[in-house]
Specification:
Radius of gyration: 31 Å
Strand content: 15-25%
Number of domains: 3
Largest sheet: 5 strands, mixed
Bound molecules: zinc ion
Number of helices: 10
Structural class: alpha+beta
Shape: elongated
Low-confidence stretches: 180-184
Order of helices and strands: EEEEEEHEEEHEEHEEHHHHHHH
């Protein structure tokens, strides 16, 4: 698979192999010969005089092709921009991932190794918490010069797997990795996306208020007095509109004074869901007085 993807390139042919005899660890000379029109290889042990057939693959030396690995991750993360070589032979930038990692797009980087002068690599990474640096070796130093948390650095072997004979990313692990990290600000949305999210929140809040108001009217008609149905929660709202709770929280701005809210309409609806009087006022305005609805 590595060879097929061009990640490993055959660079040399060995003329000796590790001997499998029990005498000692040593190399056995390989002889090439023809049999039935095919090239065969035999390894001869100088200590025991024994011989064994050797497959051609055992004789080929491979070199790791970092540029090909960068291309592979570029395609797996569905990065939009072209692969860019930042430091020749050492650091590649795959650009922003089209595949979200723990709920957000990230800048993906690849380096074959991080042991020699890792600060050269770190200095080229953006000063944010979102980049993901993939390292070709699982042995990288956890250098104190690393300005980022170590869990933003992953080794190839932990995230790459084979599924149905194809390369795949271990998304579950990647997700866990990013979620275990320090708290991040929710990813900023474009102005249009924010308007869409606010619109979805408005609709969900309106529907919830209607349920609360119907419940209130129903209980009142049964002589149960004025009762407020459980107020809406941020978790419920987030799940309802398919956004993260931090995103919902950021738009609600519950810690900001009402006058300073960027989206006062959703804040007013949120407040109404948590206050019987405000809820009744909202209900009367939208669905008529309780006498008409009851
Ligand atoms: Zn031997």
């Amino acid at each position: 698979m590595w060879k097929k993807a061009g990640i490993l390139r055959a660079t040399k042919r060995y003329t000796t192999v590790d001997c499998d005899c029990d005498e000692q660890l040593h190399q056995a000379d390989v002889m090439e010969f023809e049999r039935d029109g095919k090239t065969k290889y035999m390894a001869f042990c100088s200590l025991t005089g024994g011989a064994r057939e050797v497959k051609e693959e055992e004789l080929i030396g491979y070199t790791f092709q970092p540029a090909k690995v960068a291309e592979l991750f570029h395609s797996l993360f569905r990065c939009r921009a072209d692969v860019e070589m930042i430091i020749p032979g050492r650091l590649w930038k795959m650009g922003r991932s089209g595949v979200p990692v723990a709920g957000r797009s990230r800048d993906i980087y690849f380096t074959p190794r991080l042991n020699d002068d890792p600060q050269d690599i770190y200095s080229k990474l953006p000063d944010t918490k979102t980049p993901l640096l993939i390292v070709g070796s699982s042995r990288y130093s956890k250098s104190p010069d690393n300005p980022y948390d170590d869990n933003r650095i992953v080794s190839v072997d932990t995230i790459l797997m084979i599924q149905d004979d194809k390369w795949a990313l271990d998304m579950e692990w990647l997700h866990q990795l990013a979620c275990d990290g320090p708290d991040e600000e929710p990813e900023p949305e474009t102005r249009d996306a924010t308007a869409t999210t606010v619109g979805a929140m408005k609709k969900a809040l309106h529907e919830y208020l209607e349920t609360q108001y119907r419940h209130y009217c129903h209980e009142l008609s049964r002589g149960n007095g004025s009762q407020l149905l459980k107020p809406i929660t941020q978790e419920y709202l987030a799940e309802r509109i398919g956004k993260s709770k931090p995103r919902v929280s950021a738009l609600l701005e519950l810690k900001v004074k009402f006058e300073k809210c960027k989206h006062p309409e959703i804040r007013a609806m949120w407040d109404a869901s948590h206050d019987l009087e405000l809820m009744i006022a909202y209900g009367n305005k939208h669905w008529g007085s309780r006498r008409r609805t009851a």
